[in-house]
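Show me any protein, keeping tokens residue-aligned.
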Amino acid sequence: MRDYEVTVILQPKLEEKERNELVESITVLLVPEDAEDGNPQLDVWGMRKMAYAIQKFSEGYYLHYNAKIDPARLSEIERSMQYMEDVIRYLIVCKED
């Protein structure tokens, strides 16, 4: 397990209920298989203006996670994020040791 920072930008047009369901599904996706390592820590940055338009959106709803993830699961997590229609962008960065 390694420490990662995961930043996700969601579409701004989502209703609160839809957004909460999506946040919950992303959180579950990042939960490690070994429950002893703990759940990812979520920091909601909220609605922010983006530097440039992505998919015709100039704003996005930002989420930032600190999570322990097995590097073998990264491709699975990235593939799952790509298929989520309401995720505009995501970035997974390994923290330095």
Remarks:
- The mean pLDDT is 88.
- Helices lie at 16-30, 74-82.
